[in-house]
Specification:
Strand content: 15-25%
Shape: globular
Protein name: C4-dicarboxylate ABC transporter
Number of helices: 15
Bound molecules: ligand 6CS
Keywords: Signal, Transport
InterPro entries: DctP_fam, TRAP_DctP_sf
Organism: Marinobacter fuscus
Low-confidence stretches: none
Helix content: 40-55%
Largest sheet: 10 strands, mixed
Family: Belongs to the bacterial solute-binding protein 7 family.
Number of domains: 1
CATH class: Alpha Beta
CATH topology: D-Maltodextrin-Binding Protein, domain 2
Length: about 350
């Protein structure tokens, strides 16, 4: 055989082998489905798209993302994930509280520090976050992949509020977990649990007189248009969680499990950069977009009056979650102390 025809034959074989490999990859390539609770460009959306970027750059799999409303409310996407219709979901503890009561720990006011770098270090290092919570989620058929902060909570009200007394007779919307209702009762208000889709309309029609959310969301959802008085109380952070259906996750190859874990780590690193300075930028946009907006930052003395009501919420948390909740809270506090002492 001449060397040219030998080469042609070899080239033919490797082309065949390559085609075979590509076919095998195509067979293994999956299209995964991921839903979250927010709109285009919001924090959960950025996280989801970074997760997708990593998955698609490092495998043949593809990821389809569904934003708020495309598949329903937060509770709907969680149900679809538990049923295996969706592979991944981002649901915030604000809504997970009824499924996993311990997730309500984030609503004990003044438990979390206000300083962002300490908060981030806590999410990175905490045993409660990285070891205890995955176990709790696992009992509900969920593989917890990441918990991350979105921004400090700010209250918006129909008039500026600086004391618990001024909250009296004000209906404040809360996400649908019982502990958050306890927090707003303790703050002197009348808590009103509502799914996200009803909040803007309820503020507009004065069915409720306020709500709480991070600034980027108050801006992107236009909440300041119907609830223009922003009050910085310093009482907590909006935290969220991203997870997979556990049967789906357990059925993945070790390579794909690592891919998914690495993609979640990658998205976390990107989100930390994304939220840095986000609140300030959003506040500037809000101020530019409305003359009605007022900004009240509670001073230390005013904060003390709200903080004094935190122990009663902590007590309720333990009543709702028993020994396990008590242990989790102990670990949470220990983890916080460690990052605050650094
Ligand atoms: O208040 C809420 O319900 C929504 N807030 C944020 C920041 N993300 C999603 C959630 O549904």
């Amino acid at each position: 055989m001449s060397s040219t025809s030998k080469f042609k034959k070899l080239a033919g074989i490797s082309a065949l082998a390559l085609a075979g490999l590509t076919a095998a990859n195509a067979v293994n390539a999956a299209n995964w489905r991921y839903a979250h609770e927010e709109y285009e460009g919001d924090v959960q959306d950025v996280f989801a798209y970074k997760f997708k970027e990593y998955i698609e750059d490092n495998s043949d799999h593809t990821l389809q993302i569904y934003r708020f409303g495309e598949l329903g409310e937060s509770d709907d996407i969680m149900e679809q994930t538990q049923a295996g219709i969706l592979n991944f979901v981002n649901q915030s503890p604000g809504f997970t509280g009824s499924l996993i009561p311990e997730a309500q720990i984030f609503f004990i006011p003044y438990l979390m520090p206000t300083d962002m770098s300490t908060v981030i270090e806590f999410f990175r290092e905490s045993e409660a976050i990285n070891e205890d919570f995955p176990e709790l989620y696992s009992e509900k058929g969920l593989e917890l992949l990441k918990m991350y902060p979105e921004g400090e909570m700010v209250v918006t009200v129909d008039e500026p509020v600086t004391t618990p007394e001024e909250f009296s007779n004000k209906k404040i919307r809360v996400m649908t977990n019982p502990l958050l209702s306890e927090t707003y009762s303790a703050f002197g208000a009348t808590p009103t649990p509502l799914p996200w889709g009803e909040v803007y309309g309820a503020l507009q029609t004065n069915m409720i007189q306020g709500q709480e959310n991070p600034i980027f969301w108050i801006e992107s959802g236009g909440l300041y248009e119907v609830s223009p008085n922003l009050v910085f109380t310093g009482h907590g952070w909006f935290t969220t969680a991203m997870m997979a259906n556990q049967d789906f996750y357990n059925g993945l190859s070790d390579t794909d499990k690592k891919l998914v874990q690495d993609a979640a780590d990658y998205a976390f690193e990107k989100i930390i950069v994304h939220i840095d300075g986000l609140a300030d930028k959003a506040l500037e946009k809000i101020k530019a977009g409305s003359d009605e907006v007022t900004v009240t930052r509670l001073n230390d003395e005013q904060i003390e009056a709200f903080k004094a009501r935190s122990p009663q919420v902590e007590k309720k948390f333990i009543e709702m979650t028993g020994e396990r909740g008590k242990e989790l809270l102990g670990q949470f506090k220990e983890d916080l102390k460690e990052v605050q002492n650094d």
